[in-house]
């Protein structure tokens, strides 16, 4: 698990729609927590309850309410790609939340930021009902401390929380300028979410040409160096990546079973076929810097 600051003191140019905050949490050290006034306690608790409700409602109402309740690059990225996940799912998504306890722990004041921590016991259950398959139920257990940043007097946003026993920030790796260009096509690897039991690669593909390009499924996979060659790990690729229209840009997801390491792994996409095929490869060594441990008592496959 990564070693991170509890609340990175960043309120640099905080904007209402896209705060530039980063750096998440583990439980705040007792010496750092001070009792807050009733306004802080009420506002922090309300922000957490609203966050849970917006998360539950996101498949039906969209992610904009949720986006207004988070801060930092990591959770901001999570909300963006959650929207893609909802949009690309071929079926219906039902959700229910169970909020058992929301307890204000205290405030945290740093040199350039103020925040708070709230103890949460809650879960959100999603039921994914594919058009041509059996429904799947997934439970997100959100028990544990929630760290928030104060954006103005009496207003807070969530900057980190536990998901199935692991800080969400530990499972989010953001990439910068990680892209490959072949011909008129550019593939940018935006981020990877390592939430067991899957690794979800978030990909942006731009086609600057005039003709559509088509994904070759044989070259779209995660490959693992076994020492005697590369072995293919099959996964799920969202339909959006199947055809990139001329002059278009597409967001898509590539999802594979969780890996215990990034070493020897290569993410690959292939557009076109034959001598005109465009291959895009992203070796994960040195790119995925830390693989979080699985949740306590949970399997990763």
Report on this structure:
The chain folds into two domains: 141 residues, Nuclear Transport Factor 2, Chain: A, CATH 3.10.450; 109 residues, Sandwich (Immunoglobulin-like). Helix content is 15%, strand content 41%. The chain is built from three helices and 19 strands. The protein has 301 residues and is mainly beta. The radius of gyration is 20 Å and the shape is elongated. Strands 8, 9, 10, 11, 15 and 17 form a six-stranded antiparallel beta sheet that branches. Strands 1, 2, 3, 4 and 5 form a five-stranded antiparallel beta sheet that branches. Strands 14-13-18-19 form a four-stranded antiparallel beta sheet, with no helix packed on it. The N terminus is likely disordered. A hairpin with a 6-residue loop joins strand 18 and strand 19.
Which key terms come to mind for this protein?
disordered N terminus; 301 residues; 19 strands; five-stranded antiparallel beta sheet; 3 helices; Nuclear Transport Factor 2, Chain: A; Immunoglobulin-like; six-stranded antiparallel beta sheet; mainly beta; 2 domains
């Amino acid at each position: 698990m990564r070693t991170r600051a509890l609340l990175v003191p960043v309120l640099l140019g905080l904007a209402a729609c896209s705060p530039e905050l980063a750096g998440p949490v583990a439980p705040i050290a007792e010496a750092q927590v001070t009792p807050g006034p009733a306004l802080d306690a009420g506002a922090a608790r309300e922000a957490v309850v609203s966050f849970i409700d917006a998360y539950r409602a996101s498949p039906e109402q969209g992610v904009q309410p949720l986006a207004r309740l988070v801060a930092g690059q990591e959770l901001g990225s999570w909300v963006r790609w959650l929207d893609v996940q909802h949009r690309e799912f071929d079926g219906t998504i039902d959700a229910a939340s169970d909020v058992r306890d929301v307890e204000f722990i205290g405030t945290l004041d740093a040199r350039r930021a103020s925040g708070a921590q709230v103890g949460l016991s809650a879960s959100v259950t999603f039921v994914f009902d594919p058009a041509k398959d059996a429904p799947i139920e997934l439970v997100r257990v959100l028990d544990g401390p929630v760290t928030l940043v104060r954006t103005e007097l009496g207003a807070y946003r969530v900057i980190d929380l536990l998901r199935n026993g692991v800080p969400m920030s530990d499972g989010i790796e953001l990439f910068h300028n990680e892209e490959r260009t072949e011909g008129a096509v550019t593939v940018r690897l935006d981020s990877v979410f390592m939430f067991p039991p899957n690794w979800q690669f978030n990909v942006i593909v731009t086609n600057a040409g005039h003709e559509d390009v088509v994904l070759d499924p044989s070259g779209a996979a995660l490959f693992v160096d076994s020492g005697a060659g590369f072995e293919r790990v099959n996964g799920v690729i969202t339909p959006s990546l199947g055809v990139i229209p001329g002059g278009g840009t597409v967001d898509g997801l590539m999802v594979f079973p969780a890996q215990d390491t990034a070493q020897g792994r290569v993410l690959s996409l292939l557009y076109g076929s034959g001598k005109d095929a465009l291959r895009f490869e992203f070796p994960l060594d040195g790119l995925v810097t830390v693989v979080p441990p699985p949740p306590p008592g949970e399997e990763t496959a």
